[in-house]
Amino acid sequence: MNKKVIIIGGEGNGGVIAACIEDNRKRFGDLEWEVAGFVNDYETQVCGYPVLGGTDDVQELLKNPDYHFMWGIHMIGRNILTEKTFRKVNIPRERFATIVHKTAFVADSAVLEPGVFVMSNCYVGAQARLGQCSLMMANSLVGHNTTVGPLCHFSVGSITSSYITIGLCSDVTLGAKVIEKVKIGDFAVAGAGSLVTHNIPDYEIHVGTPAKFMKRVRED
Ligand SMILES: CC(=O)SCCNC(=O)CCNC(=O)[C@H](O)C(C)(C)COP(=O)(O)OP(=O)(O)OC[C@H]1O[C@@H](n2cnc3c(N)ncnc32)[C@H](O)[C@@H]1OP(=O)(O)O
Question: Is 153 annotated as a binding residue?
Answer without folding.
Answer: yes
